[in-house]
peptide chain release factor N(5)-glutamine methyltransferase
Amino acid sequence: MSSPVKQTLKWAQKLLPACDGDLNHAKRQLVWLKEKIISDRPGGAIDDKLSEQEQTQLEKYINQRVFDHKPLQYILGTQPFCDLDIVTRPPILIPRWETEEWTYKVIQLMHQHLDKSRPLRILDICTGSGCIALALAKHLPKDSAQIIGLDISNKAISLANHNLNIHKLSIRNTVEFREKDVFNLDLKEPVDMIVSNPPYITHDEYNSLDPDVKEWEDPRALVADEQGTRIHKRIIQVAKHCRPYNNDLPRLIMEVGGTHQIKPLTEEMQINGLKDIEVWKDLADKDRVIVAH
Ligand SMILES: C[S@@+](CC[C@H](N)C(=O)[O-])C[C@H]1O[C@@H](n2cnc3c(N)ncnc32)[C@H](O)[C@@H]1O
């Protein structure tokens, strides 16, 4: 029988292939997996010694990570996003740090420029788990915004509604989710601003994605035609009908896949009368968001 320390090291070593061979990374993942097992205990006991049955469960999670390439967030069941624990469920896209970063920036921008004349009506196109819509609803001043999240996938809308239900007590603005294809969208209600993280991976890039992504997340959430810009171009068509709220807040804020998409999207925005086009970089210094008034 091995000591607890030896056993922990054995598990971490087993996790190595799912952690790019980085032992510290593997140890951190192991801690999160153990925490999940402890927090799932029916009686709520917090003793960190795992029973035999719990050890078997831990081995099962490790095997899912290593052999099934199951993303950690699908095993843990949540991903933190702008101070919300967003429930994650395959095949709905797991919220990414890049998206969280620009969502905080949008929140800051809105805090600076919201006026009290009327609530800002925001459309979150391609809402997925609902993470962006819910983060805005949580962090914007009470009753300053009305947010609608749209997605083509009924599984995404069902998860977004589940997240809304879980977080409804901490949310200060109205949020509604609707199943809708953006190519079939006819804006009947007034909208002031569109935010979106559309699929933007090219077909070539998709082929070289890690199995954790390719085998688990919906390809519809990842890939788009026209070098990854097809959905953005459609969103631009929709955004030209947004009414400007004031001179300081943009009408459109969209995540992009990189520098190669900036020129075609800038051209499309100009053709459709959007102006003051700006590109925001992410923490890794990559072109990440395109913004227009
Ligand atoms: C990159 S994911 C973004 C999810 C979420 N907003 C986030 O940032 O984690 C893109 C989402 O777009 C949705 N989608 C793809 N094509 C669409 C379309 N034609 N109309 C509406 N939604 C679409 C997918 O179902 C997916 O949930």
